[in-house]
Structure formats: structure tokens, C-alpha cells
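ok here's the first one, seq then C-alpha cells
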Amino acid sequence: MRRIKIYVHLLIVTLLTPVWSACDQSDDVINIFTGETWYMTYIAVEGQNKMYDFWQGDQNARIKSFETIRGENYTLNFYGASLGGSNAGGTFTGQATSAKISGGWNANGENRKLTLEIKNAGNDNDKYLGKAFVEGLKKAHRYGGDNKNLYIYYKEGANTMFISFAPQRNSGN
């Protein structure tokens, strides 16, 4: 009889574990955004994991754009703190190829809403990726990912696009 009670208790704990873990479904927004230099890996249409063809088949322009994805180009740094509940925010800085961008940010860990208030952004020399990077940040409306991959979603016409980021690694490693 004692064994049956133990098995029943184990069964109850096993069945309730998913319920208990489902109680807190909000992201740790500070952990996701801050503490990393994020660099862009690609820009795509939602549902696709390949670079969008901004060049409309012009391979020379594509190659020239891809050469700009290095070093300090296409990076973002977020600075901030928890604002209570599942909200966090602060300031951010970024760099396309020639345009620096900065402003404020606010993210909600429950619904993944992201607001980027651009205070400073110039025009970028790269009229394809540089332009898409700056415009995408200006139109940001939500995020996805975690502290290993960050996706910033924005609308471009009928498409929902996203900018994919990864943490920048120290080149000395």
C-alpha cells in the first residue's frame, strides 16, 4: 500500500510539473537585450531563414553589401533596467556601415512587444543592407529569441521582416 501511495504522489508531481512551469511565461528581457553587442547576421521575411534579396539579382551589389557585414558594422548595444513586471527599457546605440543610430527602447517580456524610439539616425552609404537595417529598426514592433539569438521584427509593405542578430564574439578568442 505504501508503494502505491508513493507511485500516486510521483504521478501527481509528474502531471503537475508542466502546469507549474507554465505559470511564468514571460521572458527575462534584461538578460536577452543587455550585456551583449549584437551583430546582424541576416535580414529575412518571417518564415524564411535566408537573406532577403534586396539587390534584385544584382550580384555585384550583393557582394559589395556582404563585404560590409564585418567588424563594427550592423551592431546594436542595449543598456537598461527592469521597469517593473515583465517590462524593461533604456537606451541603445548602433552602427550600420556609415550611419550611427541611437535612441530608447522598451520591451515587454509577456507579449514580446518592442518599441525603439530613434533619436538619431543618419542615412547609410550601403543603399541595400544599410538602408534596410536602419529602416527596420525604425519600424520595429516586436522581438523574438533569447540571449543567444535576437530577432527584431518590422513591417515592410505586406511583409513582416526580421533582422537576425547573434552575440558578437571577441575576435581574440
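and now the second one, same deal
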Amino acid sequence: MSPPSAPSAPSGPSGASPEALRDLALAVAREGAALVRERRSGAVEVAATKTSDIDVVTEADRACEALVRERILAARPEDGFLGEESADDEHAVPADGVRWIVDPIDGTVNFLYDLDGYSVCVAAEVTVDGTSEVVAGVVVDPATGTEYEAVLGGGARRDGVPLAVRGPAPLAERLLCTGFSYDRRIRVLQAEAWVRLLPHVRDIRRRGSAALDLCLVAEGRADGYVEEGVHLWDHAAAGLVAREAGASTRVLPGVGGLDLLVCAPSHGFEELLDAVEWAGFTGGTAAE
């Protein structure tokens, strides 16, 4: 696929078609991925921590988000912007319009250790009459150059090739992806739930990027994804990719009081959800 040029804003309630928003997301995500790839070629150090001493931020996270934000708002200055590293400085969206949701490096610990499995994620969410929906999403893997993208109602693709989830399989033959919270208290609860569920599934994988895990479900290389502690920027883009490939997603209260995201092919989603609830991943109270 050749890099798209930054599109002009077409007419419509949000000032853009989903395809035009996807093209802009892809252009800026590619540029952000190039910056991340260049930063990874040198020494990488922790710039700060967030929710705990193991929840790290690098200068590359900040630089990538600043670049993406600058490019998007230069092209569409009236849009809103929510980024992981600048969430406290959200660029507000009008009552009806477009908000961009960005994770500059999903999988920062992998990036820090120079391990495969980190991504740049850009999603466009449109609000009309008070109802918001992600209409375009892009996930780019800087290490491999792999690109996942989707438009609402238009399907999902990897490097231009259409994606589809894996066919039906019994629960015992499903490979599930997961991740663990940076909150040590919640990690204990997650581990206890997995002890109950693991004997009833094929196996689990923990790769370190929620977005890339969701894309694995989209391309039929995994049968589901379960994780508490996700944020909107972790799954806005990749969740659309998964849904457009035939998956369902749902955000529930987790046992530790944080958001729990469950994703699986739609044909087997309810069975996995029942198993997740039985194992004790859900039903927590607010985290202290």
C-alpha cells in the first residue's frame, strides 16, 4: 500500500467520511511509527512512571504523541484529541464532531526492552446527537511495519488484505490472549481467575500489547482476549479492527474495580463471556 496523502476534510455532519478519517489516521500512525522505530535504534530510558513504579513512560511515548497530535490538529483543528500521555490536557470535542483517540506506544515495556510487540494506535470517534462511535482505526507495528486498519461497516485489513476471525472451536480448544494490570493488588486477582479458567482452555498468551492482541483475534491467530485495566486508547482502534473482522467486544467491571475488556469471535463470544464470569474476572467494586 502506498502512503496516503493527508486528506482534505469532506462534507458531512462530522466534516469527514470514515474513509477520509482512516486515511489521515494511517498517514499519521505511519509517521509516528517511523519516529518510534528511529528512537528504538538508540538507547531508551524511562522518563517517568504513572500508576505504579512498573508503569513506565519513555521520551519516545511523549514525542510520538506530540507528533501525532500536531499532525492531526493541523489537518483538522476543530476536532477533539485524547492521548494516553496527555489525557489531563484533552483537546475537547464539540457536542457533535470527531475525537481522535491515540496510544503512541501500546506496549511500552516491550519497547523499553527491545522486544517485539508494541504498536502505534490511532482511532477516530464520531459523536452525532450525543451518540459516539469509533468509525476508523489504525494499528501500526513499528518493528515489523505491519499495518492493521478498519472503517466502520467496511471491514478490516492487514497490509491491505481482508481479515476474518477464526472459525468456531470448543472452549477447550481456544487460545486466549491476556495482559496484567500494573496494580499489584489487581494482578493477584487476575492470577487467581486465570488459575480457575486455564484448565478449561487450550492455553494463554501474554504479549504485552492489548492492541496487537486484539488484532490477533481479528486475523484468526487467537480465539479471544481478556484483560482488566485497559483504557480507551488501548482498544479504540484495535477493537474496531476486531469487530470489523467478525469479533464482538464488551467492557465490563473487573473484579479489581477497573475496566475489563473481553473480545472473541462473535460466534463464540457468549460462551467465553460466561466462562470469564464463572472464573471470577468480573464483579469487582471500585478500586481504592
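notes on #2: The domain at 18-154 is CATH 3.30.540.10 (Fructose-1,6-Bisphosphatase; Chain A, domain 1). Residues 1-13 have pLDDT under 50 and may be disordered.
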